[in-house]
Amino acid sequence: MSYRIFNRYAKRYDEWYYKNRKLAELELRLLKEFIKEDPSLEIGVGSGFFASRLNINVGLDPAINMLKLTKDRGVEAVLGIGERIPFRNNAFRTVYIIVTLCFVERPKELLNSVRNVLSDGGRLIICIVPKESPWGKFYVKKAKEGHIFYSIARFYTIKEVVKILEEVGFKIIKAKGILSFSPQDKIMDELPKNATERHGFVCIEATKKSPSH
Fold first, then answer.
1. Cys-Cys with 47: which of 2, 14, 161, 172 at CB 3.0–4.6 Å?
2. Range among 4-8, 51-55, 152-156 rated most confident
3. Mean pLDDT for the stretch of residues 162-174
4. What radius of gyration, in Å, describes the C-alpha atoms of the chain?
5. Which residues pair with 98 in a beta bridge?
6. Bridge partner residues of 194 (DSSP)
7. Helix-strand-coil percent breakdown of the chain, rounded to 5?
8. What SS3 string covers 138-203?
9. Domain span at residue 42?
10. Within-domain flag for 213
């Protein structure tokens, strides 16, 4: 299970945000494009970098050492997995899944669990590194070289994520992206735009489809 890797190397994972501060801030800029309503939850909260900056109420993660870092950042930290979210139905107005999807073995099970805990009209914000983007190809290459985190990841295209979301009963609202440059380029200060496979970081907003009458 991938969480064991994250538990063992929690501090090493967290160091990425400081070594790549400009990239992390651009990703955060994209996330701020989406409206957040509380109560809010991040699944696979990791070290809490995004949750603390977006003022997300609760962070869920199966890696206890990650949750220690999350708690240190002032976010309520809960031990658990996304496939069996330990909260009542309709508990949250906004749920975030930030890059976590690529480390989940059963994505549909995860998203069905999210549907249960989202209130009617609630939003899911799901972010990925698109497989076909320059950044996706860069990380896939690192995975093949045995990178400790990327080697256990499964990357998706935007279309693949949209398809999974629709199959489990979500309606797509919008998709926006950032990091239009490649890993070899100089980092550009840019604004989020409508998502394409060229973008290295893409967030999709979706809501629960209303039950059929």
1. 14
2. 51-55
3. 97
4. 16
5. 127
6. 176
7. 40, 25, 35
8. HHHHHHHCCCCCHHHCCCCCHHHHHHHHHHCCEEEEEEEEECCCCCCCCCCCCCCEECCCCCCEEE
9. 2-208
10. no
